[in-house]
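Dear colleagues,

I hope this message finds you well. In preparation for our joint manuscript, I am sending the Uroporphyrinogen decarboxylase (URO-D) domain-containing protein (Blautia celeris) sequence together with its predicted structure, so that both groups work from identical material. I would be grateful if you could confirm receipt.
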Amino acid sequence: MYDRDNVLKAIRFETPKYIPMKFVINDSCWNAYPQKELFDLMEEHPFLFPDFERKEIPYVPDYSNVAQKNHPYMDDWGCLWETTDDGITGSVKQHPLADWENYDSYQFPDPEKCMGIGKINWQSEQKRIQERQKKGLLTMEGLRHGHTFLQLCDIRGYQETIFDMEDEEQKFSDLLDKIVAFNTYIIERYAGMNVDIMTYAEDLGMQVGPMLSPENFERYILPCYEKMMKPAKEKDILIHMHSDGDIRTLIPFLLKSGIHVINLQDLVNGIDWIKENLKGKVCIDLDIDRQRITPYGTEQDIDDLILKEVKELGSAKGGLMMIYGLYPGVPLKNIKALMDAMEKYAFYYN
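The corresponding structure tokens are as follows:
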């Protein structure tokens, strides 16, 4: 979906030809919309879907392990995932270390064999990446979503994780060290393959405010991020950080860690706030609203939103990318309006 040269120029503020735009259709949408109409919209927007190939109907996506209805999934950490909708990532219903009494017998996963959320063959992975590099394609690789703080929450439970931080629990520190060692191995393997961008996706925000205090983030999580980013930085690999939710009070720490790209939500954090605090300092990978305007606004509202974001956060020099994740509930006419606007305003500075 991304042109390698253009994306790298956007991240490095080197005057890209256009604003990189990405439109992701969540697998759950294929059960919620007429499939032909979704395929028609994709075919009508070749800029957003340059490699589009119409599939036979009925189309059944290859749902991820953690997004299969009626199929609970035990991940590599011993966390049991469940979902109520095919395609929608579930939540952890059983935490393997809800009680510290089990810690001495707890089995840690092996990063040589798995990613934490599924098996991996590193030889096959290297071959896949080398094939992309030979074709001149962008290589973005990295950790599973929820790699550190959320991994703690999955293993211990959210409430217990917060209590552990406040109580300065020794077993908690040991668990965190082992998670970081697991993650660092994965980063080192990808860094050895000289990928273009290393991704560190982890939701830290709620609707209002972060999931943990800025003080605990700085004390416990930020040093982990810096340690895990080091192998990529040593190879001059660009660092891409993602978090949903309101992360405004954590942004100074994320900038301190040396990220090159921050993927954050637009209206939750505020377009004006993002402009004042991030524009020109780091490449903004803007996550377009899924809560207010795109599901409930008019087609004109959607066009106005994309234009405003491009004007306020963009520049001919670069520093802006945009992404939209489609989930059920957005009217088809609004989906079309959004695709139209993203294709149109991608070339606003050209």
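For the figure legend, we might mention the following. The chain has a mean pLDDT of 98. The radius of gyration is 20 Å.

With kind regards,
E.M.
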